[in-house]
Amino acid sequence: MIAEVTNDRCSMKINNLPKWIAILVILLSTVGCGAKVTVKDNRSSQVAFDEALALVDSGSYVQALPLLEKSIASGGLSADFYATALLLRSRCYSDAGELEKANADLEHADQGSPNPAQFQLAKGSLLAKQGKKAEADLAFKAAKKADPSIKLPK
């Protein structure tokens, strides 16, 4: 029996092994052989994220959205920045009235243990757009409690 595993980074040949061992080796050989993220991707993602953050801070949600989408899609952000980018994009989507997308980003970011203040701020923004003022106010208060320096929407 001959089995061959190849992809862009991994290559292996297996000769004369029992079938179950060959399958196990094939499966294990693919671990760590996924897409590469280069230093350039990391820098590009971080630059886009930083520019988007400045735009969100100034209230320019429409201009920040494509930069956030770029930084998220490139795969170059660390886990913490990725979760924060999702929260910022959720706020942008809320501002644009794309509430389903905002909610999806919020739920996805919640699984990544994001910054509690940013999470509550994004949640409050979404709830406010949904017309749930009392719940939004609670989320905004929780954001302010978690980080007194956080800027709340007007």
Mean residue pLDDT? 79
Task: For the largest sheet, list the strands in their spatial order.
Answer: 1-2
Give me the secondary-structure category: mainly alpha
Query: In this structure, how is the largest beta sheet organized?
Result: 2 strands, antiparallel
| Strand portion | 5-15%
| Overall number of strands | 2
Query: Roughly how many Å is the radius of gyration?
Result: 21 Å
Total helical segments: 7
Question: What's the end-to-end separation, in Å?
Answer: 69 Å
Q: Could you say which overall geometry the principal axes of the C-alpha atoms support?
A: globular
Please mark out the parts with pLDDT under 50 across 5 or more consecutive residues, or reply none.
Answer: 1-14, 27-35
Percent of residues in helices comes to: 55-70%
Summarize the structure.
The protein has 154 residues and is mainly alpha-helical.
Set out the fold topology.
Elements: E1 2-6, E2 11-15, H1 19-29, H2 39-57, H3 61-73, H4 79-95, H5 99-110, H6 116-129, H7 133-146
Antiparallel strand pairs: 1-2
Helix pairs in contact: 2-3, 2-4, 3-4, 4-5, 4-6, 5-6, 6-7
Structural notes for this entry:
This protein has 154 residues and is mainly alpha-helical. It is built from 7 helices and 2 strands, in the order ββααααααα. It has helices at 19-29, 39-57, 61-73, 79-95, 99-110, 116-129, 133-146; strands at residues 2-6, 11-15. The protein has a two-stranded antiparallel ribbon. The longest helix is centred in the first third of the chain and has 19 residues, at 39-57. The protein is globular, with a radius of gyration of 21 Å. It starts with a strand and ends in an 8-residue tail after the last helix.
